[in-house]
Design goal:
The protein is mainly β and 134 residues long. The chain has one helix spanning 102-107, and strands at 2-18, 23-34, 38-42, 46-54, 57-70, 75-86, 91-99, 112-119, 122-129. Strands 1, 2, 3, 4, 5, 6, 7, 8 and 9 form a nine-stranded antiparallel beta sheet that branches. A hairpin with a 2-residue loop joins strand 4 and strand 5.
Length: 134
């Protein structure tokens, strides 16, 4: 697998409501990305909405934009819609990416996957693409 993005996220605010069948948490965040393909900052307005159905199952839906430079050093913007499920053991996501970078547009074609991991002071999001078979 090819790691396209490595994004360190820091939670800046939390809103929460509990209903009869589920609870919802909205996490506001900032952070930065540092990988071979992209380096940059998360723009204000990033939010992850987490719908908790049971103690062991959470639906995630994060949306955010980043501003930075691509692998060619060209200035660019990236929009990420990252949805998936999280369990106590792991988090797997299926991101969709929109960018004005030609390099990233080509690299992000096809099916992408993501992981969520704890990191010192925050959360590490990694986005991957399967290597093309030759």
């Amino acid at each position: 697998m090819i790691e396209l993005f490595k994004i360190l996220v820091f939670i800046t605010g939390v809103s929460h409501v509990t209903g009869t069948d589920m609870s919802v948490t909205m996490l506001r965040f900032n952070g930065h990305a540092d990988s071979e393909y992209f380096k940059g900052e998360i723009l204000p307005g990033g939010v992850d909405t987490q719908m908790h159905f049971t103690r062991d199952s959470t639906l995630l839906s994060a949306r955010y934009m980043l501003k930075g430079v691509d692998a060619n050093g060209d200035s660019c913007s990236v929009y990420i819609c990252n949805e998936g499920y999280m369990t106590p053991r792991n988090g797997k996501t299926h991101p969709k990416i929109v960018t004005d970078s030609k390099v990233l547009s080509e690299a992000c074609k096809g099916e992408l996957s993501g992981t969520i991991e704890g990191a010192p002071g925050g959360i590490m999001i990694r986005l991957f693409k399967e290597e093309e078979k030759q």
